[in-house]
Design brief:
The complex is a heterodimer of chains A (324) and B (261).
Chain A: E1 4-10, E2 14-17, H1 37-46, E3 55-59, E4 63-68, E5 71-77, E6 83-85, E7 88-90, E8 95-99, E9 103-106, E10 114-119, E11 150-152, E12 164-165, E13 176-180, H2 189-197, E14 200-206, E15 210-214, E16 229-230, E17 235-237, E18 245-247, E19 254-255, E20 259-263, H3 268-272, E21 279-280, E22 282-284, H4 287-303, E23 309-310
Parallel strand pairs in A: 13-22
Antiparallel strand pairs in A: 1-4, 1-11, 2-3, 3-10, 4-9, 5-8, 5-10, 6-7, 6-9, 12-23, 13-20, 14-15, 14-21, 15-18, 16-19, 17-18, 17-20
Chain B: H1 9-18, E1 26-29, E2 34-38, H2 45-61, E3 66-71, E4 75-80, H3 87-99, E5 110-116, H4 126-133, H5 137-146, E6 149-154, E7 161-164, E8 179-182, E9 186-190, E10 193-196, E11 201-203, E12 206-210, E13 231-236, H6 239-247, H7 250-257, E14 258-260
Parallel strand pairs in B: 5-13
Antiparallel strand pairs in B: 1-2, 2-4, 3-4, 5-14, 6-7, 6-13, 7-10, 8-11, 9-10, 9-12
Classes of the chains: A alpha+beta (324), B alpha+beta (261).
Chain lengths: 324, 261
């Protein structure tokens, strides 16, 4: 029997994500990929996978998944998600070995939107255009999961071994850094200054394609229809309403609203993880500073697997003498 | 053509601060890992030709650190790896390529003869187009099939061509309520633009007919049929021919529709 994860009651917005599908933008194919790449890398590192191996990504809640394999090693990352296995608490940001028939239940987190369920050795999926990332609108990758769906695993069992943990990257409330442009010329200096001084709020109208912000209107001075042109995740579009829309990983490949600024790669995962209602402020940095920041971000991503620590084996001491 | 022609004080004042005409080509960062090169601010084949020429020249230059490029109507988006090439270095390289002079149309250019069935159940928005344009159905179809269309860019959905060249009599503002599911193969018009739908998409454009051609099929060796710069003509076919073409293999169908320029 093929080892699988079976969706008992999957969350409403569960997809498979990896590092995405670069190289096909020119053909209208969205890049996709994890909304929070550092958390995907962390999950994979905890179960011993390559950093960009495909994992389950979910928004808000992961739902219930039954283990139909002899054993699996899993890790949940992204935030302080409430996770149980057969009702027993399972800590996020560490690996766990689960047995056939156990049901993993992933509830919400107070500090995150996007979570990841990484499985050791990964899922048995065929990449399309070089990636297993799901893109629901174009039908690429494995689609939306419904009750009873199964997700094939590459291995049927994993050996007993020391489990591993890591300390999640510290989150901050610092402003989200942006590089102005490419179409900031459609806005007056006063409007740009007001945008950078304002506090916006993340709304519920946010998904893998984009995040709609609430807050002060940004007025255009040159109309709001630009000739559609190429864009990337992080672009802050100002549509006719004047309320900013931040494009995210599943964004279309070209768009026709003025792009006031672009969130830097290093801060995009932190922005994507902002929960509805949470405040968002932006700070402009120049291109040189942004490229320096990018170096640091890439170095930190590469460093994540080295921050994984084996959990010491339990001592034989009775529980009242244990440290914690 | 959206370029400002007549003096309009409001617009002139606002666009003056946007970009001066002599500022092209204009370079701007799109975050720290992409930049855009704008050649103008109009939908014109001549501007689009410059975009495609720079794209072709950049590919031939084989610079380290180029991740991908997205040619569109009047600008080229260049995504790059900042660990390998900086913004300033890349801008300098692009300026050097532009200074050398670009060769127009170095790449492939195809002409596509796209069979379309316009009958009632396929041209679901034909009646609305007839009503809005005050033309007969025959006249609408004849206008649609008489024009030569030009692929400016591919986008919105995998492999979807954005076509220019729609006869002005067929320029209609979008439908008020988008249709949530337009099927693959739908042949549509919207404003001055036209398209062929590659995968099920929502759209507020008008579906005039259906073609057996699929602009995108992930199972094909080359999943994408069209390239910017290709030309398209629509040809009316009877339902029987449409059904016959629909049963052909992709390779056989290509023999009927593709001409290398």
């Amino acid at each position: 029997m093929t080892p699988v994860l079976r969706a008992v009651s999957p969350g409403p917005y569960v997809t498979i994500q990896d590092a995405g599908r670069p190289g096909w933008h020119r053909f209208g194919v969205s890049g996709c990929g994890a909304m929070d790449m550092p958390s995907l890398v962390a999950g994979n590192a905890l179960v011993g996978n390559p950093p960009d191996a495909p994992a389950l990504e979910f928004a808000h809640v992961g739902g219930s998944w039954e283990i139909l394999a002899q054993s699996v090693r899993i890790a949940v990352t992204g935030g302080s998600f409430g996770v149980t296995a057969d009702g027993v608490a399972v800590q996020p940001w560490r690996s766990h070995r689960l047995q056939r028939g156990q049901v993993l239940h992933i509830k919400g987190a107070s500090d995150a939107v996007w979570g990841y369920l990484a499985v050791a050795h990964g899922f048995d999926l065929a990449p399309q255009l070089g990636s297993c990332a799901t893109h629901l609108r174009s039908g690429l990758g494995v689609g939306r999961f419904v009750e009873g769906d199964t997700l094939p695993l590459r291995v049927a069992s994993v050996p007993i071994a020391r489990e591993r943990q890591l300390v999640p990257h510290a989150s901050t409330a610092d402003p989200i850094r942006v590089v102005m442009g490419p179409q900031d010329g459609y806005f007056s200096q006063q409007e740009i200054a007001a945008f950078l001084a304002s506090t916006y709020r993340m709304t519920h109208r946010s998904d893998r394609m984009g995040a709609w912000l609430d807050g002060p209107v940004v007025a255009h001075c040159g109309g709001f229809n630009v000739i559609s042109d190429g864009l990337v995740p992080g672009c802050i579009q100002i549509p006719g309403s004047g309320k900013p829309v931040v494009l995210l990983m599943d964004c279309q490949t070209i768009g026709g609203y003025p792009k006031l600024a672009t969130i830097v790669s290093a801060d995009l995962p932190r922005f994507a993880q902002c929960r509805p209602g949470s405040p968002v402020k932006f700070a402009a940095i120049d291109i040189d500073a942004a490229q320096l920041l990018y170096r640091g971000y890439r170095a930190a991503l590469a460093q994540i697997p080295q921050t994984v620590r084996e959990i010491p084996e339990r001592t034989a001491l009775p529980f009242w003498l244990r440290a914690s | 053509m959206t370029m400002l022609r007549r003096p309009d004080p409001d617009k002139a004042a606002s666009t003056a601060s946007v970009v001066q005409a002599d500022a092209y080509p204009r370079f701007a960062p799109v975050g720290e890992a992409a930049l855009t090169v704008e050649f103008g601010n109009a939908v014109e084949p001549a501007l689009n030709a410059q975009v495609i020429a720079l794209d072709t020249a950049l590919a031939a230059a084989e610079l380290d650190g180029i991740v991908e490029t997205v040619p569109s109507y009047r600008s080229l988006l260049v995504c790059y790896e900042p660990l390998e090439i900086s913004y300033h270095k890349l801008v300098a390289e692009l300026r050097r390529l532009l200074a050398h002079g670009l060769q127009e149309r170095a790449g492939r250019a195809m002409t596509w003869d796209v069979p379309v069935v316009y009958e009632a159940s396929y041209g679901i928005d034909l009646p609305e187009v007839v009503q809005r344009t005050n033309l007969t159905e025959e006249a609408v179809v004849s206008l649609h099939t008489s024009a030569e269309y030009f692929i400016y860019t591919i986008g919105y959905a995998p492999g979807m061509p954005y076509l220019g060249g729609v006869p002005p009599a067929l320029h209609l503002s979008r439908r008020d309520t988008p249709r949530p599911h337009v099927e693959a193969g739908a042949v549509m018009i919207g404003g001055a633009q036209a398209c062929i739908v590659p995968t099920t998409v929502p759209s507020a454009w008008y579906q005039l007919g259906l073609t057996p051609l699929r602009p995108f099929d992930v199972s094909r060796a080359d999943p994408f049929l069209f390239r910017p710069g290709d030309r398209i003509r629509f040809r009316r076919v009877a339902l029987a021919e449409f059904e016959w073409l629909s049963r052909l293999s992709f390779e056989a169908l290509l023999q009927y529709v593709r001409t290398e320029a």
